[in-house]
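Checklist before submission:
- one chain only
- standard amino acids only
- sequence pasted in full

Submission:
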Amino acid sequence: MKKATILVVDDDQDLLTATRILLRPNVKEVIVEHNPERLINILEKNPVDIVMLDMNYKSAINTGNEGLFWLSKIKSQFPKVNVVMITAYGAVDLAVKSLKQGASDFIVKPWQNEQLINTLTGIYQESRPNQKEKIAVNTRDQHGIIGNSPIMEDLQYKLDKVAPTEANILILGENGTGKDLIANAIHQRSLRSKESFVKVDVGSLTETLFESELFGYKKGAFTDAREDRKGRFENADAGTLFLDEIGNISLQQQAKLLSVLQNRAVVPLGSSQAIPVDIRLISATNVPLKVLADESRFRKDLIYRINTLEIQVPPLRERGEDIPLLADHFLKFYSAKYHKNIAGFESDAVNKLKGYHFPGNVRELQYSIERAVIMSDQQSIRADDILFSPIEQQMEEKPLIADFSSHNLEEMERKAIKSAIDRYNGNISKAAKELGLTRAALYRRLEKYNL
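Returned file contents:
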């Protein structure tokens, strides 16, 4: 984005100052403005590439829709200017509406700095197709999916087949393989690509938050419900809803989700009125399908609902020929991010990457390359610059399931749970995270196995 000009419009002076400091090293020029009534005049006088526009101001419009008003002004007079909406968490439904009215994206404050940079970089590159840098030579890169290996070509073929349908998709794969990337690619290739793509990590939602986050609530439904709020199902209406880590939700949550999928309608907390929703559902889990089929863990009728078609994302160790392509992609990205002039990899570095089995998959490769770029003072990455994740190595040295003489699933699960509890000295939160369970699900299993 070294040639980009960014205009930030927000009535929070602290936010303007912080954003200008963050963006200044990455772009050509940052213009900040606290009064949205001046933004049209600024756009007339400056060749702005991206406008970061707040959703709400202390102005006479006073409806909560100020951002949408100014968005329409920008798009009517400067249709080629990209607009990124700035919104608070409680106004995500308005931000989703802004996408349908021409916004390129939205970002929720407070944001992660890296997330903001990545969002702006992607939008800027998409708007300047003739100046985009090639990420990797001879790489098939569709919606961020990189790889030439036969197994990835087969995956791309399946995506091309299933994406245009309305079928619900279940994405299976180990942690770090890029299941969220696959979900987004399906949406981008679908007939709903112009509509919203809403992601929810349902595995991290507590029992109390599950309904309010997914189905919404009415004002007064509970103590902190000060206004009506749409849930993620309504936000995804006419688009795609991606439920990540679905294998970790409790049986009670599964029953509530199944009811909504069967009825194609949600009932917000505090309301008795059903609201129809039209969504295409994509789900993902790192839990193998044969484990999900255990009805003590997952409802079979829900599996059939979410799994019209399934996509298996291969681990990186099964697509070793793609490692140099992925490494080159991450090298270019992090070299630009950290302002390093690193041309490529030495042969010993490539051999080191190819010889490693990457238990953490693409995510581990990404972090390894990022660390190498940060630490390198040379014009190319050497083998000594590459360090693999000590977290993954420790997990391998202390396997979750050490030695099972029995192949009985319940006995294996019991031993795995006991091993995790012992390893973390009874810390339920840490044990549940390692096992890929919610705390509530782990408590149920502790009671089941009398541990």
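Reviewer check: The two ends are 56 Å apart (CA to CA).
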